Amino acid sequence: MMLPENRAALLLAPMQDITDLPFLRVIKAMGGADLYVTEYFRVHIHSKLDPYILRSITENPTGRPIIAQLIGKDPNELSRTVRDLKNYPIAGIDLNLGCPAPVVYRKQAGGGLLRDPDQINRLIGTLRETCGELPLTIKTRIGFSHPDEFARLLEIFKNHAIDLLTVHGRTVKERYQTPVHPETIREAVHFLPCPVIANGNVVNVTSGLTYLEQTQAAGLMIGRGAIRHPWIFSQLRAALSKKPITVVTGKMILEYIQILYDQTAREVPKFNELKHVQKMKKYLNYIVQGHPKEFEYEIRRAQQPKEFFRICRSFLDYSGPAPDLPCENSRLFCGFSQFL
Ligand SMILES: Cc1cc2nc3c(=O)[nH]c(=O)nc-3n(C[C@H](O)[C@H](O)[C@H](O)COP(=O)(O)O)c2cc1C
Fold it and tell me: Whose CA is nearest to atom 13 of ligand 1?
């Protein structure tokens, strides 16, 4: 329904405070993904639809479908939110079963729900009913503490006839600091009638193709690797159709940083240069990985836009290929070498 028919699908992973409307515009400008998922709408007794997240739906700039993601634990409140969202042009509802942040999982939402499969069963049952014809998708990790927990989850997903499953191939306890478990995702691919998307640790074309091969998934969802190299979707699309792959150069990254700066600046009501440089550092954290360590250190100290762009130019103003991979075991990228 929402996926390309003759090749693996490529999805941008939802990332809180990152994959907002301006970032979607930038991703689209760099080639774009096939399908998008919003940052999560928090759902609780007093929750209202966050107007900023809603804009990525009402002003969806991607030309592709977008699914609204929810995080919460109460079936009635989740249902109420689905009914509200049905007034907007969404391609489906996604339930978050993976967030490992302790403030979330201790409240039995996100990844915390994985400790209570019976509650997941109730939630998905209610959501399935409220969604009706609207596709219901799930984004999950493979368990809370151990991959053995996954089989029970798969049975629940199958019973409720969900429309698509994305699996981040780690447990909640593994957070982001380990390799992923491709064999577990493959189990889901074989067990479920719906498409299964593999997520976690795709950082370049090779890692993406290997993950697809090892899981036989219907597609890939990419998060941090897409902040670092937003061209990863067009590169993978080319690789999947046996076409030449564009090589990312230093200058391309420089241009990407400029576009990101301009697009995110556009959305700030009271623009403040110093604050904006701080905001850019959130993206740069990922972008600098794989480049000389000094780039990261110097950017951390930047205050003024002029200084910020001078540092970027001093490390990126070249027409040759940029590093294809981040460093393995950096603070933000770990365990991907299992796919190289
Ligand atoms: C900064 C950040 C924010 C995230 N926010 C969300 C979110 O709102 N919803 C969600 O399902 N996953 C969220 N995730 C998890 C990602 O969607 C993805 O599952 C994870 O990063 C693994 O994929 P990757 O290795 O391609 O980054 C977030 C991850 C990061 C790094």
Answer: 15
